[in-house]
Structure formats: C-alpha cells, structure tokens
Amino acid sequence: MRSRVELLLMETQARVCRALAQLDGAAAFSVDSWERQEGGGGISCVLQDGNIFEKAGVNVSVVFGHLSEEAAQQMRSRGKTLKTKDGSKQWWFGGGTDLTPTYLNQEDAVHFHKTLKEACDKYGPELYPKYKKWCDNYFYIKHRGERRGIGGIFFDDLDSPSKEEVFQFVQSCAEAIVPCYIPIVKKHCHDSFSPEEKLWQQLRRGRYVEFNLVYDRGTKFGLATPGSRIESILMSLPLTARWEYMHSPPENSKEAEILEVLRNPKDWVH
C-alpha cells in the first residue's frame, strides 16, 4: 500500500504541474529532488514569476524515521498514538483542499464545491457534508474570527472501513484537484484589477500567512521534525503580503462581502 500511495502522489503532482505550466504558458517548474538524512526524501516543484502565476508550488514528501518528542506531541494532541497492544502496524489517511479567493464569485464557489462533492459522493452521500464542515473548522483563524478561505474538504486519521476503500476515496479526491481549480483560473486569468483590489489581495495573503504559521498542522509537524526541509515546508507562503493597522473594509463593498462568508461559512451545494 505504501508504494501505491507514493505512486498516487507522484502521479497527482505531475498532473497538477502539467496543468499549471500549460495554463501559464511562460514559466516552467523548477524540479528539486531531495533526500532526508534521517530517512526519506521528496520532490519540490516551484513555478515563479510566470505569465499567470506569481508563484505555484507542488510538493511531495515521503519521509520515515524516529519522531522527535515535539513532533510526537503534535500527534498526541489530536489523540493519535503509534503504540498498539499486539505490535501491529498502524495506518491512516488524511488530506484536503480548499479555495482561498480574494473576492467572492458565487459561480466559482459552486463549481469548486460541486466537483469535490461529486468525488466524495461515489463513496457515500454523508462524506462531503462531513468533510466540508471539517474543512471550515480546520481552516479557522481563531484570533481573527475568520476562515482562511471559502472551504472545500478536509479529513484526517481515516482508518476505516479498509485500506483499499480509503485509498480509493483518496484517489477520487486527488483526481478532482485539476478539474475543480483549473477552470476557475482559465475564467479569470485575464481579468483586470485596480490598485485597491491589489491591496486587498495583499491583506488577505497576510491572513493566509497567519494561518499557515500559527495553526497549520503540517507546518508545525514539519518544523518539529528532525532534518526537515525548511524551504519545502515554507514554499506555500506568498512572495508578498501586507498587514495594516486596524484595517476594515467599507460596508456593502466587495471586500465586506467575502469577509462575511469567511466569518459565516455557506453551504454552496446540497
């Protein structure tokens, strides 16, 4: 199963990189293969200063070895332990994807969530609502009272009903990444924007940075793991972001519209 999961991740990485590079048409991904002295390695693919994408990154890490006490504590904090009475191996799957737009477009939100729902519905109608709510709760910036974006799906510690069934579900979700996202980029890649809209984007990027550095499990786990590759862990951060003291958007503005959704998540599909 481990080799099948590795292959799935590699194939998904290649598929996403190919779709992004074809759409950008100018920049190419730099491909950086690396090894971890303590065990494992990965491939980091980064496209920067392109025709459409300011920065895009698609990473795969396959690591193994002994956990530091801090990394182990990250697992214990969510009720996960690697000890079993009979010495059997433990396994579980986790994953997720969310959309973090600067401005709200209802049609885009519906498309993104509908595509993910279709991927989940193949394995049970109860999965999408459950993992959509999980996503809204996970990407919550507590000190701001806002979500990072307009949600998607998120799940962790999945270890039932069986390895094969969970793997098939994860594969379905992975195959939905390109069709849920690329059409939105194609639709808007030539949109114009004002300096005021660019400023709002920079402020929203600041919120993205806050979540990733303060709350994100993967970032915290990676930084606590001996021999971790810092460049790959922090690759998701934007090239530029902005913080302004006591900034608040005008009432009934486009900025206030998305802020309302970030504070009070919506059900985009039923």
Question: How would you describe the overall organization of this protein?
Answer:
It is a single chain. With 270 residues, this protein is of the alpha+beta class. The chain has ten helices and seven strands. The chain has two domains: 1-65; 67-263, Coproporphyrinogen III oxidase, aerobic (oxygen-dependent coproporphyrinogen oxidase, 3-Layer(aba) Sandwich), CATH 3.40.1500. It is 47% helix and 15% strand. The two termini are 34 Å apart. The model has no long low-confidence stretch (mean pLDDT 93).
Described by the principal axes of the CA atoms, the overall outline is globular
- C-alpha Rg, in Å? 19 Å
Distance between the termini: 34 Å
Poorly predicted regions are none
Q: Sheet with the most strands?
A: 3 strands, antiparallel
CATH architecture classification of the largest domain: 3-Layer(aba) Sandwich
Please tell me the overall pLDDT. Answer: 93
Question: What's the number of structural domains?
Answer: 2
Percent of residues in helical segments?
40-55%
Give the SSE order as H and E letters.
HEEEHEHHEEEHHHHHH
Pathway: Porphyrin-containing compound metabolism; protoporphyrin-IX biosynthesis; protoporphyrinogen-IX from coproporphyrinogen-III (O2 route): step 1/1
Pfam family, one: Coprogen_oxidas
Protein name: coproporphyrinogen oxidase
Subunit structure: Homodimer.
